[in-house]
Specification:
Blueprint lengths: L11 H12 L1 H4 L4 H8 L3 H10 L5 H17 L8 H9 L3 H14 L4 E6 L2 H16 L3 E4 L12 H4 L2 E6 L6 H12 L3 E6 L5 H5 L2 E4 L6 E2 L2 E2 L4 H21 L1
Parallel strand pairs: 1-2, 1-3, 3-4, 4-5
Antiparallel strand pairs: 6-7
Helix pairs in contact: 3-4, 7-12, 8-12
Amino acid sequence: MLFLDQSIELNDTELDIYNYITAHLDTVIYMRIRDLAEATHVSTTTILRFCRRFKCNGFSEFRVKLQLYAEEQKRTRIDMSDETTYIDFLQRTASPEFKGQVARSASVLRDSELVLFAGIGSSGIIAEYGALYFSSLFTLALHIEDPLNHPFYHLSSKLSDKICLVAISVDGENEDIIRYIHELKSQKCKIISITNSAKSTIARLSDANIAYYINKEMYQDANITSQLPALYTIECVAREIRTQLDKEN
């Protein structure tokens, strides 16, 4: 709540002041206490009580903390104008290295009778799309929404080596996915991963990995790195498998 790490309960008057401040942040940081009182139709005493609710001794301290908060918010704003990240990635998809990674992944996947897609957070949404796309072009594919609650302890040996997991992860270090990979590897299932780096744990545990290498982006505590490369890569692999199978028939 503003510069506080936790939420606090506000009465109706305090909530009106809070809403005014958040809506006019760039203006309030330059106001005098009397200006803010007039703008919110309360007394200066009420403004002082409001400041103390935010652990400030007075309006001057509140305004300083508010200004620092406003500056921090500006630093974390997202620049949507830089398209070079996507252009660079798409150019790399024409390289022999990327095409080789796609071909190796397709070779591992093409003998599978069941493909599982797993990811956490936004990667989970991409995994769900991947399952749909693979089912349309290749073979039955399922999205594992909650890996920890879908154990594979009792797989038949006749089936386990026909299953391939496609793990989607930006940083390649998600502990839930790593545990799931270890569980499936112990059952002799194949592992394909699509990550941002080939040096990540998930990438190194995989039978084949496709790394797309784009700049990692964070907004506050959220990882907002683009999923466009993962989406494109899934389609590339599925189309490569379909092409290989069509050539044989």
